[in-house]
Every structure is written in C-alpha cells, then in structure tokens.
Specification:
Blueprint (H helix, E strand, L loop, with lengths): L10 E3 L5 E3 L11 H15 L14 H21 L2 H10 L9 H12 L2 E4 L6 H6 L5 E4 L17 H12 L2 H16 L3 H16 L2 E4 L2 E4 L2 H4 L4 H4 L4 E4 L2 H6 L10 E5 L2 H14 L4 H8 L2
Helix pairs in contact: 3-6, 7-8, 7-12
Amino acid sequence: MFNEAQLYSPVTRSGAGDVTVHLSDEHPGVHDPDYRARRNAIAAQALDYTPGNPVPRVEYTAEEQEVWRIVSAELARKHRKYACAEVLEASARLALPEDHIPQLDEVSAALTPLTGFSYVPAAGLVPLREFFGSFADRIFHSTQYIRHHSAPLYTPEPDAVHEIIGHANQIASPRFAAIYETVGAAVARLSTDTALKFLADVFWFSLEFGVVRERGEIRCYGAGLLSSYGEIEEFRHADLRPLDVVAMGTATYDITHYQPVLYCAESVSEIEDVIGTFFATMDDDTPLRAAAHSH
C-alpha cells in the first residue's frame, strides 16, 4: 500500500451505524473526548455524502476557527518567503479566507472559475484509484476536520489545512491543474497496483514535495511543503536532485519525517515537460521499464 495511507486515521462504521475515527496513540487529540466525538461526527457526514448532492457543511467551533487563523497567518508569511511565483499568483487569485475555515463549497466556488476543480468531502483515506482517478473530472477529495488546538502548527495526518491551504492554492494554477488532470487520465489506463503505486510515488515527490529553482533561490510548489509549518523551513537543507521520474517512482521514503531527498525542477516549464509528460504517457509497463533502466 502507498505510504501516505499510514498518515490517515482509519475510519470504521459499526453494524449499528456508529462512525469511529481511530486516532494513533501519538495523536495530539487522542486523550480529548470532545475532539474525538467531533472527528467521528465530521467523518460520519462525509461518509453519508452522495455525489451530486450538496456538500455537507461543518459547523466549526470557535476553537477550530482559531486554529485556522493561527495556521493561515503563519503559512501566509512562510509562502511569501518560500513559495514559487506560480503558486503565489494562483493563491492571490483564489484568495482563501484567513479568518475562518472555508466550507468545501466555498473552496469550490472560488476554485472552479479558475481551473474547473471542485472539492468533495472525504472521511479519511480515499482509495488511491478513486482519489487520483477523480482528478480526470477535476474533482478533489478533501477531509474537513481540523488539527487539535493544542498543536496548531502540527498535524500527524492530512487535515483541512493540508487539503485547502496546500492543494487548493496549487490547483488554482491552471498549469498545475492541468498536470492533476493528466494524473487522473493516467489512472484510467492503469490496471496494476504496482503501476498505481509508481504513479503515487512520483506524485508524492512532485505535487506533494516538489521544489523549483527561481532566480537562484529554491522555492516550493508541493502541497505537502506549502501546508507544513515545520517542513517549509527545512526543505532547502534537503539533498536536492534533478527531476528523475525513475528515481522518484522507485525511492523508499519515510513520510513521518522531513524528506531528506527532494527533486528540484529548474522551472515550472520543466515540471510540465518532465512530470506532466510522464503522467500523460505512463502505463502498466512503466515500473518494469524503470526497473530495467535502474540496473
């Protein structure tokens, strides 16, 4: 299974219909019964969602809104310093609210006119084929819960901050949105889990943790970096390597630590040429050819 699955807290529904989010023992909210009940309720709403129906709204608490305000302000400062121009321009057009957590329909209302993408709710981990495959229809599956208030600048799992401040600001760029769509089209061509994992790993090292050189500076475009208060300060210290889809698709990595190796593009055009072309042309035999290539 793709590494990112380790990140999401498992969600189960009992025979009686009760929904439970299983937080890890290290999760900042694991010993907070109010937070746990909240997470269960938000997950239940997402599980009950049917495509085509209105997206469920979450009535966020004052505490949750305060977490969003803190993280938004801190990340906005980091973005001005570290994000690439393409993301900054897209982010300015999208103009996400910093004073409250946007509902997913609010994100879609701002995003759809820019790139045709819309957001739908996810209770937790969405199966890879469905998550990446939906990009072909310009749909993004997003969690709606927010990290625990005791640690506003840290989360052990992708929350609304990651999905919205990370991905929506990236997808607001027509150039990045087009690459997402090629990812979705690729998934439709893939039948093996091996090929799907290869695609997911290249996505991880590009659209989640990609960096690009701009005017002699290393800047980030990956959603995982854009949404991580800690890691956005660290990525310049990584071992930066040129774009190499074979290396990206076959690398072993630990997602629970800052990434020691990152792949750096020389421009957004190079991301389109190398990563975009890879997704546009990959097939089930890609991992086999990669293995042959690396020997």
